[in-house]
Amino acid sequence: MNTGLRFRRRDVLAPILFLGLAGGSGVAASAAPIRPFARPNRIQIENLAPGDASWRMVRPGGDGDIVGYPSAVSVTKGDRLDFMVSVTPAQRYSITIYRMGWYGGAGGRRVATLVGLAGAPQPPARIDPQTRMIFCQWSPTASITIPAAWTDGVYIAKLTSQSGLEHCMRFVVRDDARAASYLYQQPAFTYQAYNLFPGVRANGKNLYWGFDHGRKYYQDRSLQVSFDRPYSIDDHTWQYGPGLNWETSWERPFVNWAERMGLDVTYSTDLDTHLRPWRLTQYEGIISAGHNEYWTVEMMDAWIRARDRGVNLAFLGSNAAYWRVLLSPAPDGRPNRAVLCAKDPAIDRQTIRFRDLGRAEQQLVGVQYSNSAFPQMADFEVKNTRHWAFAGTGLKDGDRIRGILGYEVDSSQRNYPQPRTSNYTVLGSSPFFGALSNASLYQAPSGAWVFATGTLGWAYGLDHPALTDPRIQRITSNVLAAFLKV
Known about the structure:
By secondary structure, the protein is of the alpha/beta class. The chain has a domain at 9-48 and 245-482: Rossmann fold, CATH 3.40.50. It has helices spanning 15-18, 42-46, 188-194, 236-239, 252-261, 270-275, 297-308, 362-365, 470-482, and strands at 66-70, 74-76, 80-87, 91-100, 108-119, 126-127, 134-135, 142-145, 153-161, 166-174, 182-186, 210-212, 215-217, 224-226, 265-269, 285-291, 294-295, 312-318, 323-324, 326-328, 338-340, 368-381, 400-411, 424-432, 435-443, 449-452. The strands form eight sheets. Strands 15-11-16-18-26-25-24 form a seven-stranded mixed β-sheet, sandwiched between helices. A five-stranded mixed β-sheet has the order 2-10-9-4-5.
């Protein structure tokens, strides 16, 4: 498993001990609590820096006020990142850049501020007549070269106009050379799939709906979406701000918790997995959280290859690897700036569900999408609690954990192929508005563990003002501990 790669066990904080939840019987040797580290890892050191909660948006502008997008979804140290910003009416504006993490509960750290920038309206968004893709062709109004001192992670660039209106852009800073224990993959393709820019009132479109004077039409949806446009403020009204509002995203609770725990994690995006699939075999565990719905074949192959080479996988969300997408260049030729997903074999036989291509996602994940009931959430019901994943939780079969199930859920579906394993355990079996949701854990022939929660709301149990639950924290700690070499 991971032949020739060296992992520094001492650089991983003991998550179970950190939570004060050490102990519990029945934990297999592979899932034993991690011992305290001998030397702090990069994430622990980073989170000792003072936090700054001003990353939160207080006065979000509309889609026609102050908006912008970055030139890349991820960058590495030394890369130049351009910001394309439109401000209406013309006025000065600022960009404040934050790294997102724990930081003593502040949730972020300010790392740079660009002030006194000249803002003006940029040309209206354009639309491709064939695919109905909405895209912008804006000029850069500011740029930054990523400093060597920045720690890899999720970053947001907060725009603030002179009149006080705000908008956020998001990107990831990678450190491809860092030998971390875990790799976290951000689902940038899914962000764009739901992005409605230029908004409902301006006839915005995404992969689900096309709007015409406030009315939505499925047949007028985009077949292709572009990274060359801002995230719409309209997204957060029904999709929890997949790209715009970090505060209400499905991922933020996991990132907060992981960095609070000091997990030795590095960051990437789904585009990075597509472009550099070999990277997944360099880690002990790969983590997906939140809504990770849109994948390329190259991504699917990379995750399967990693599992089959002994890399452990955690799906701390639901609806993963559902739609197969193709990437294409921007109209001006810049590569990988558009995501195609027709969702209709009569239009394109390639960009449909993976399960309809003979590659059911549960063969990798363990479970697969079964039902949604937006915006409903329900209780997670545990099963097989004698399993080591539940060690130290005090849970019994049939116990329920409040409010973390939904709004999309997965299940184990017998009418599709199952993963290759002799060690498959259902950890959750929960009624959900006429369906049954499952969480699962299986061990591949390579020895790799694959954990799937079957719910978008799992991370709420890790860090949420009302739903944080030490039992969800403990289960997650038990599983991620099992990912590490002893």
